[in-house]
Design the sequence.
């Protein structure tokens, strides 16, 4: 069997076993071949299970497959391939001595017995059956990661007894605070119309309600992070969540004004910051006739000019 055939076979296997996209590459394929001591002239049925370290894997790639990696890529091999192999149950870490200190230079890896038996059938009539049996008892790493992502999602209460989940992170934590802390204080009874998500473009979107209020947007519309409808005042609150990117400045104010130009409700522009420390970085950019809310002092609202405590301005050209 030629070297390219083995590499292509290994790539196919990594895909079939559900390795994430970042691990479906030539480096990972070579690591798998090294774990199996599968040299170019061997068939998959001849796969073995040697104990092997990261540096020997790199040497195997160079000697057997003419793929030369720089010494400083050793950590990439370990962190971006072998670590995921262990997570997926494809490889075992220090099976000869499980109590070996972490990051020991003597650390070794070995293909797991179940994976070895499976891969010996690759390219044979037994492959499909073996694969089905293997996957029925072994979750793929993509499935494991997907479950972890679901477990880490941040719940956001949008109504009594109803919640949505958005991706974890500082930005999402601030969005949660906007919905659960800002809205009840300054727009009690407001209905959530839209919330963005760092994981999905539309974290939550009540298109029907927004259309009823005169606004129709498509997936290309640059929505604010949170949109709330405060029916008592007939206001649409357009809230930007700022953790690392800009507030409602003059340019963004104009963009939102155009996007919501058809709204029958009054427009209120709000910038939310996680703290006053973050806010101070953007003070010079914040547009007049907008509001600022800071999550670490949730009972206060800062008004940038205008006679109203909180409310829309009919003369949008003033900014």
Sequence:
């Amino acid at each position: 069997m030629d070297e390219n055939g083995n590499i292509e076979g290994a790539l196919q296997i990594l895909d079939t076993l559900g390795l994430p996209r970042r691990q479906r590459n030539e480096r990972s394929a070579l690591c798998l071949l090294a774990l199996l001591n599968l040299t170019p002239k061997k068939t998959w049925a001849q796969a073995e299970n040697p104990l092997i370290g990261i540096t020997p894997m790199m040497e195997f790639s160079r000697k057997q497959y003419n793929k030369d990696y720089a010494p400083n890529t050793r950590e990439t091999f370990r962190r971006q391939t072998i670590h995921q192999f262990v997570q997926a149950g494809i490889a075992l870490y220090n099976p000869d001595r499980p109590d070996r200190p972490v990051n020991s230079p003597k650390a070794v890896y070995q293909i797991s017995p179940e994976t070895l038996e499976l891969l010996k059938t690759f390219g044979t009539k037994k492959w499909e059956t073996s694969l089905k049996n293997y996957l029925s008892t072994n979750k793929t790493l993509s499935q494991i990661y997907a479950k972890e992502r679901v477990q880490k999602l941040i719940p956001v209460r949008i109504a009594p007894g109803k919640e949505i989940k958005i991706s974890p992170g500082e930005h999402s934590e601030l969005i949660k605070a906007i919905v659960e802390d800002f809205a009840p204080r300054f727009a009690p009874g407001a209905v959530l119309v839209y919330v963005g998500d760092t994981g999905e473009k539309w974290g939550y979107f009540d298109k029907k309600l927004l259309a009823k209020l005169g606004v129709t947007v498509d997936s290309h519309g640059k929505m604010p992070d949170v949109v709330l409808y405060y029916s008592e005042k007939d206001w649409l609150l357009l809230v930007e969540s700022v953790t690392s990117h800009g507030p409602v400045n003059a340019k963004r104010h104009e963009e939102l004004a155009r996007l919501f130009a058809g709204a029958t409700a009054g427009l209120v522009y709000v910038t939310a910051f996680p703290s006053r420390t973050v806010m101070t970085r953007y003070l010079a950019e914040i547009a007049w006739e907008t509001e600022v809310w800071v999550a670490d002092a949730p009972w206060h609202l800062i008004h940038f000019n205008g006679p109203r405590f909180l409310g829309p301005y009919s003369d949008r050209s003033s900014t």
